[in-house]
Design goal:
By secondary structure, this protein is α/β, with parallel strands linked by helices. It has a single domain, classed as Vaccinia Virus protein VP39 (Rossmann fold), CATH 3.40.50.150. 28% of the residues lie in helices and 28% in strands. It is built from 5 helices and 9 strands, in the order ββαβαβαβαβαβββ. The strands form 2 sheets. The chain has a 7-stranded mixed β-sheet. Strands 1-2 form a two-stranded antiparallel sheet. Strand 4, helix 3 and strand 5 form a beta-alpha-beta unit. The radius of gyration is 15 Å and the shape is globular.
Length: 197
């Protein structure tokens, strides 16, 4: 079972795809979001959740005060579950059907989405399948970099045994790293932002 940990939709249960995704554990999400809130990276932010799976990361951010969330998921069955979860969270947050949705689901491969995207995001979660190779991970980050706001935070989740992301090749800079069991999480920022932090 996956649930929203905190915020206005706290305790809400989220559906999870039966296979093909690897939901981030409650323990990792709790620690991660506590750190993001301490860094004032959530309130009012524009969030992008790549390889969304159930949408738990993006919807947790929405519950905690993000202004808008885009969730990208290639699998049709998983994208359908994300849409259901979005509707459940939107209802809990009091959004009416006539309002612009607080979260949008994009049924698309990540590279395809990033190549045609025009928005600027403040907070990005990328939690690709563990078997995604290093070159593909770097290509994702390189395509993402021009779409980030100046002070954006990019959270990259991979297996602990994975090679650290090649952020430099993508125009980013890693500024924090933490391991939770077999999960490693890196925080990155646009390389130009490192002088202002």
């Amino acid at each position: 079972m996956t649930r929203i940990i905190a915020g206005d939709a706290r305790g809400l249960r989220l559906d999870v795809p039966g296979s093909g995704t690897r939901p981030t554990s409650d323990r990792v999400r709790e620690s991660l979001f506590g750190a993001l809130e301490s860094a004032d990276a959530i309130e009012g932010s524009r969030v992008l959740d790549l390889y969304a799976g159930s949408g738990a990361l993006g919807l947790e951010a929405l519950s905690r005060g993000a202004a808008a969330v885009d969730l990208v998921e290639k699998s049709r069955p998983a994208a359908a579950i994300v849409r259901r979860n979005v509707a459940t969270v939107a209802k809990a947050l009091g959004s009416s059907a006539s309002e612009a949705p607080p979260a949008r689901v994009h049924e698309s491969a990540v590279q395809t989405f990033l190549k045609r995207a025009t928005g600027q995001w403040d907070l990005v979660f990328t939690d690709p399948p563990y078997d995604l190779n290093d070159d593909a991970m770097t290509a994702d980050l390189a395509a993402l970099a021009p779409l980030l706001s100046e002070d954006a935070v990019v959270v990259i989740e991979r297996a602990r045994r994975s090679t650290p992301p090649d952020a430099v090749a993508a125009g980013l800079e890693i500024f924090r790293e933490k391991t939770y069991g077999d999960t490693a999480v890196w925080w990155a920022q646009p390389a130009a932002a490192s002088q202002s932090r």
